[in-house]
């Protein structure tokens, strides 16, 4: 079975846990404006790290202020899917 792309995995998390539609989020929206507190962001990071075997430096994660910055750290485009 093929691996679920990180983007789809994050989109599903945001839909089910945060009631957010990935493609409707403005890239430059702040995480706070989206209602994503530090615990939610940490949950996303930990889930992605475990599922995909990647490790993100805590400092970089802590510095992400916008949705685009967070997605860039995860190697995902914040642009809506075409």
UniProtKB/TrEMBL annotation:
<dbReference type="InterPro" id="IPR036736">
    <property type="entry name" value="ACP-like_sf"/>
</dbReference>
<feature type="domain" description="Carrier">
    <location>
        <begin position="4"/>
        <end position="78"/>
    </location>
</feature>
<protein>
    <submittedName>
        <fullName>Acyl carrier protein</fullName>
    </submittedName>
</protein>
<dbReference type="Pfam" id="PF00550">
    <property type="entry name" value="PP-binding"/>
</dbReference>
<dbReference type="InterPro" id="IPR009081">
    <property type="entry name" value="PP-bd_ACP"/>
</dbReference>
């Amino acid at each position: 079975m093929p691996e679920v792309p990180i983007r789809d995995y994050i989109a599903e998390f945001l839909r089910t846990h945060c009631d957010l539609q990935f493609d409707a989020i403005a890239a430059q929206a702040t995480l706070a404006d989206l209602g994503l507190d530090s615990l939610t962001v940490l949950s996303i990071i930990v889930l992605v790290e475990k599922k995909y075997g990647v490790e993100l430096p805590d400092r970089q994660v802590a510095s992400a202020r916008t949705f685009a910055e967070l997605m860039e750290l995860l190697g995902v485009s914040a642009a809506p899917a075409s």
